[in-house]
Amino acid sequence: MFNLILFGPPGSGKGTQSENLIKKYGLKHLSTGDLLRSEIKQGTPLGMEAKSFMDKGQLVPNEVVIGMISSAVDANPKVAGFLFDGFPRTTAQADALDKLLELKKTSISLMLALEVSEEELVKRLLKRGQTSGRSDDTNENVIRERINVYHNETSAVAEHYRKFNKVEMIEGEGSIDEIFASISKEIDAKLK
Ligand code: AMP
After folding, report:
1. In CATH, what number is assigned to the domain containing residue 139?
2. Which of 16, 66, 71, 111 has the fewest other C-beta atoms within 10 Å?
3. SS3 assignment for the chain
């Protein structure tokens, strides 16, 4: 299996690049943000709990997202690999993911970390907010809180995988095609 983590702050292009990646490499896309928004849309108790955190730009509790990812991995036993998008976001989530994959006799193959300046992130998210229907993209305070959470809690996840030599940095500013070409180059080198 080829298991990829697409990593980076909110607005760095993970969702956009994921769409291209799943087409080219046939990976199963698991985005915790998408899964949570789907729970909210269905009005489930999990969705209602998650919404109170998401509206403030804070992380949903680890147990909730780890449970969701665990079920999604179990539900897809025959895939070529997973593309994790927006997960793991804490070192506790990274530890849980590593254990979960180990039980399936597999592991993370590569983490690609998109680098984008803070001002560009805010600009992109506010623009996305005009059409995404996401309330957490329309309020600049919530956007800045999400970026703070990334620095304070999520960036450490890259250190976790760096210890295992699994991280490659990607310049995340440029055209979608240029960035996709850099991402593909790293994946192809790893697949060889
Ligand atoms: P995203 O769509 O990845 O930008 O996520 C939107 C929001 O969902 C985040 O601001 C968090 O509140 C929540 N969320 C998504 N993924 C996670 C995760 N792995 N851990 C905790 N909260 C998450």
Report:
1. 3.40.50.300
2. 71
3. CCCEEEECCCCCCHHHHHHHHHHHHCCEEEEHHHHHHHHHHHCCHHHHHHHHHHCCCCCCCHHHHHHHHHHHHHCCCCCCCEEEECCCCCHHHHHHHHHHHHHCCCCCCEEEEEECCHHHHHHHHHHHHHHHCCHHHCCHHHHHHHHHHHHHHHCHHHHHHHCCCCEEEEECCCCHHHHHHHHHHHHHHHHC
Question: Does ligand 1 have an atom closer than 6 angstroms to the CB of 86?
Answer: yes
- 140 is a domain residue: yes
Q: Which residue has the least CA distance to atom 12 on ligand 1? A: 54
Is residue 159 within 8 Å of 88, Cβ to Cβ? Answer: no
Domain that holds residue 178: 4-27+79-191
Q: Which atom of ligand 1 is nearest to 86's Cα?
A: 3
Q: Is 97 in the pocket of ligand 1 (CB under 6 A)?
A: no
Tens-digit pLDDT profile for residues 131-170: 998 989 999 999 999 999 999 999 999 999 999 999 999 9
- CA 24 from chain centre, in angstroms, equals 18
Write the single-letter amino acid at 22.
I
pTM of the model: 0.97
Expressed in angstroms, the distance from the first to the final Cα of the chain is: 13
Give distance in angstroms: CA of 47 to centre of ligand 1: 12
